[in-house]
Write a structure and sequence with these properties.
Elements lengths: L1 H25 L15 E7 L6 H9 L7 E8 L5 H11 L3 E6 L8 H12 L4 E4 L4 E2 L4 H6 L6 E6 L1 E3 L7 H23 L11 E4 H6 L14 H9 L5 E5 L6 E3 L5 H13 L9 H23 L7 H25 L8 H23 L8 H18 L6
Parallel strand pairs: 1-2, 1-4, 2-3, 6-9, 7-10
Antiparallel strand pairs: 4-8, 5-10, 6-8
Helix pairs in contact: 1-6, 1-10, 1-11, 2-3, 6-12, 9-12, 10-12, 11-12
Length: 401
């Protein structure tokens, strides 16, 4: 049993560290410079559910955009029980670009947030669709610089996301969350530059409406249990001769509201991980990477906990954990300097790296015990989809009449 555990620990570590090396290699590739010539019409779609507190600042941030082309800000009130709709109406009276769209009933096909975004897209008309959240803030040149990345062939632009500098819970929580966002953004930027069309962020992304329609919109080719941004990125990436771009310039960085507590951060990440339970929807290589990250973190963190009772594990755990921490510190330090976040090069970065396997393990195991609220009839849908795939596979072996 001990030998099996050590082999599993080392094998997963080799695969995980190799993937980290791939991400590190992508950090040294140059991204394409944005092209500022075209000014297509743009629709910014923001889903909002009970957002009366955060929405005024978000709307003020949108109204400060000086995009030289035609733009509209479509705020989708998803069955709010507060004054969200009134907040949007007051903003629309001040800025003609602001529009209110309301969702009256939930979808049986799409998750609530995606259903709201889908309503906004159908009610808008821009050639470029930009989506974000109702608790985000945007630099003055955000919209113009995001759209400037749409060179010929680019179907989607993935934008950089980071948390605001203030946090009501604790300074250490804010630093941990900010560093964790940096790791996610560095990974997404590297994968995009390496040509992997795998991931995006719903807080800051843009895509061509024509490409969205060509890919079948949300939920294609069937009923999607989550319809999240990664699924959309992967479907758009399958379009012929399609490319994705990553926008990391300071003008394109969206600030999102930080978690108020450690519990809130863990619940948010649990919801994110829950969507990856639906294996049938994701690109195999993408899902394999997610699975390796989760399995490696669980095995490593459990090994660390077991060392007081199994001293023979100590050299193996020390080697694997030390190699992981070293690679993370080097890679994150390089990425932080590339993105102008030298302020994160402090002891908190070491703390994040040491806690990272435990953080991922808690999120993964919690998602298995109690998945997040991403699905709309997902379990029944998954069974039907697998049954349909099984019948299709069996038909291949039936003799033709």
């Amino acid at each position: 049993m001990f030998e099996v555990h050590v082999v599993s620990l080392c094998l997963l570590a080799v695969i995980y560290l190799s993937s980290m090396g791939l991400v590190a290699a992508g950090m040294f590739l140059r991204g394409r410079e944005p092209q500022v010539a075209a000014r297509p019409s743009v629709s910014v779609v923001i889903p909002a559910h009970n957002e009366e507190r955060d929405l005024p600042d978000t709307l003020a941030s949108l109204s400060a955009q000086t995009y030289p082309g035609q733009a509209e800000f479509v705020i989708v009130d998803d069955r709010s029980e507060d004054t969200t709709a009134e907040v949007v109406r007051r903003a629309a009276a001040r800025d003609a670009r602001v529009r209110l769209v309301q969702v009256r009933a939930p979808s049986t096909r799409l998750s609530p947030k995606v259903n709201a975004v889908d309503h906004g897209i159908r009610a808008s008309s821009g050639e470029i669709v930009v989506t974000s959240d109702a608790d985000c803030r945007y630099p003055a040149g955000w919209l113009e610089r995001m759209v400037a990345h749409f060179a010929p062939g680019v179907v989607m632009v993935v934008g950089y996301v980071e948390t605001t500098r203030k946090n009501q819970a604790s300074r250490w929580l804010h630093l941990f969350e900010t560093i964790d966002w940096l790791s996610l953004m560095l990974t997404s930027r590297s994968l995009t530059r390496l040509g992997f069309k795998f991931a995006s962020s719903a807080n800051n992304q843009a895509y061509r409406r024509a490409a969205f329609d060509a890919a079948g919109g949300f939920g294609a080719p069937g009923r999607a249990p989550s319809g999240d941004e990664d699924l959309l990125a992967q479907r758009l990436g399958r379009l012929p001769r399609s490319r994705m771009a990553f926008a990391s310039l300071p003008e394109t960085r969206v600030l999102t509201k930080p978690a108020r507590s450690w519990g809130a951060l863990l619940r948010q990440r649990r919801r994110w991980v829950s969507r990856y339970h639906h294996v049938v929807h994701y690109h195999p290589a993408f899902f394999a990477g997610i699975a390796v990250l989760g399995a490696h973190s669980v095995v490593l963190s459990s090994s660390i906990v077991l060392t007081p009772w199994i001293p023979a594990l100590v050299p193996w755990v020390a080697g694997v954990w030390g190699a992981e921490v070293a690679m993370q510190l080097v890679g994150m330090s390089i990425g932080a300097r590339q993105l102008g976040r030298e302020d994160l090069l402090r002891p908190a970065l070491v703390g994040w790296s040491l806690l990272h396997p435990f953080f991922i393990s808690v999120v993964v195991l919690w998602s298995l015990l109690a998945s997040g609220e991403w699905r709309a009839g997902a379990q029944a849908y998954r069974r039907r989809l697998l049954a349909r795939k099984w019948r299709t596979w069996l038909r291949r072996f039936r003799p033709r009449a």
